[in-house]
Write a structure and sequence with these properties.
alpha/beta, single chain, signal, SIAE, 24 strands, 8-stranded mixed sheet, elongated
């Protein structure tokens, strides 16, 4: 477990830094081997020094930019730099004649990775961990950085601590202690992305197991969803069922706010388990609003260099308990999409979603809530990034989604927006449910009845109807349980067999 830093200790330490006039340094998340954001964006560089002193920043002896230390902090923005050979970044302060040089600095794309324990899950914990760790040194241009665990009741200027300083990847850094070292999803996302882009990728990991979305959200974001600042009692799956209290915004304050000056390409997120039974019905507001708020804050913090609508990818929850439809996972999956069922959508633009519902793992040593297969998750995230963040036109990144459903005689036809995998099994495994409701209200599970798949075509699936008057047949839903499928065995996939259809609810019309 990483050490935590209380705000009171941090405050005294930070005050001593600002009062020590001779201290001249970069902020905590700059260092040798780092990746700064490439052109056309400009990288922001900042640190601490003696108030009133002039600071000159240069890149390999050229492109000098100067600034002044104000209230103990200096800050400047570099000119756009294209991908190329490693640079030295030097900052020099007048008055004290101090100089600091960072070496082996690359320019590329920087991605932030955050969330709870499935994001904190390390490379050493995944399936085929030995093989994955052996590959680390083969990707020296995928650089990693990890913030130390810290929480604060106030917004911090700089990180309280650094767990992994900017580094070239090694097996030791990617393995480490369970849930405590570098993120598997983050690393695999960066490695797969590098194989496509062929230029440096910087990965900034800032996550904490068992944490609710409210802890990662600013007070202004929570206010927009009617969630006032409070103590959050949530079940911490990361701590094997222990009860943990989290104050609102404490991780925003300590582990996100200090990063806002950084220019980034985008972010990926894996969280939601901790909200399955806490503010669950607010997640369709709190999660999209958190994304909007991060976007605004990073844009302002980087002087407009991070795009206001930067791409944001997330993992839809996998599985936890078999034969249990009341643990909240099915609702969180739906709310992760702002109740659209897919992403991007009108409420969550420039987002992309990786499904994990067909990746259950009841043999995981870390508990079924922590599946070992993070490779498929990262691969699906990269497909989304390539399509949404990088604009690749011929990349399929979404599974089939229904356009409409209609009742004809004794069957219900569900039509999809793309071809579905041929060879779909005719099964009575009860993946589909039909709402039978005289008053057209389908909120109660008691109004839903399992039905069978009876036929399929290239763009449609036909299911049976329940013993219900046709006038009362109201809606259809799909995969609306915690654990609906076995490993990669849901009934509907894209025509190439790679991407599953997500859970959905859809009104049924009459022909």
């Amino acid at each position: 477990m990483l050490k935590t830093v209380t705000f009171s200790l941090l405050l005294s330490a930070f005050a001593s830094v600002l009062s020590a006039a001779e201290v001249f340094r970069f902020s905590s998340y700059y260092g040798n081997h780092m990746v700064l954001q490439k052109a056309p964006a400009k990288a922001v560089v900042w640190g601490f020094g003696q108030t009133g002193a002039k600071v000159v920043v240069s890149l390999s002896g050229s492109n000098n930019v100067s600034t002044t230390v104000i209230n103990g902090i200096w800050r400047t923005t570099l000119e756009p730099v294209e991908v190329g050979d490693p640079y030295n970044l030097t900052a020099s302060q007048s008055i004290t004649n101090s100089s600091i040089t960072l070496t082996d600095v690359l320019f590329g794309d920087t991605w932030l990775c955050s969330g709870q324990s499935n994001m904190a899950f390390t490379v050493g914990q995944v399936i085929n961990a030995t093989e994955e760790l052996a590959l680390a040194s083969k990707f020296p241009d995928v650089r990693i950085f990890q913030a130390a665990l810290a929480h604060s009741d106030e917004e911090l200027i700089d990180l309280a601590g650094v767990e992994v300083p900017w580094s070239r990847p090694t097996a030791e850094l990617l393995g480490g202690k369970q849930f405590s070292h570098f993120s598997a999803v983050c690393w695999l996302f960066g490695r797969y992305l590098y194989k496509t882009l062929k230029y440096p990728i910087g990965l900034v990991h800032s996550s904490w197991g068992g944490t609710p979305v409210e802890a990662w959200s600013s007070p202004r974001a929570l206010h927009k969803c009617g969630l006032m600042k409070s103590v959050l009692p949530v079940q911490s799956y990361f701590m094997e069922g222990a009860s943990t209290n989290w104050n609102s915004s404490v991780l925003w304050n300590a582990m996100i706010h200090p990063l806002l000056n950084m220019t980034i390409t985008g972010a990926i997120w894996y969280q939601g388990e901790a909200n399955a039974n806490y503010n669950r019905d607010k997640y369709n507001c709190s999660f999209p609003v958190m994304i909007d708020d991060w976007r605004m804050a990073f844009h302002e913090g980087s002087d407009g260099q991070t795009p206001l609508g930067f791409p944001f990818g997330f993992v839809q929850l996998s599985t936890y308990l078999k034969n249990n439809s009341k643990d909240g996972f099915r609702e969180i999956r739906w709310h992760q999409t702002a109740d659209y069922g897919y992403a991007p959508n009108e409420r969550m633009k420039n987002t992309f979603m990786a499904l994990a519902i067909d990746l259950p793992d009841d043999r995981s040593p870390w508990g079924s809530i922590h599946p070992e297969d993070k490779q498929d998750v990262a691969y699906r995230l990269v497909l989304g990034a390539r399509a949404v963040a990088y604009g690749e036109k011929n990349v399929s990144f979404q599974g089939p989604f229904p356009t409409h459903a209609f009742l004809e005689q004794d069957f219900i036809y569900i039509v999809f927006n793309q071809g579905i995998e041929q060879g779909i099994a005719i099964t009575n495994d009860r993946f589909f449910e039909i709402c039978c409701s005289e008053d057209k209200a389908c909120g109660s599970d008691g109004k839903w009845f399992h039905v069978d798949i009876v036929k399929h075509g290239l763009y449609y699936v036909i299911v049976s109807t329940p013993q219900c008057p046709a006038a009362n047949i109201t809606a259809v839903r799909y995969l609306w349980t915690d654990w609906p499928c076995q490993l990669k065995a849901c009934p509907i996939y894209s025509s190439d067999g790679l991407l599953p259809a997500p859970p959905f609810i859809l009104a049924i019309t009459k022909q």
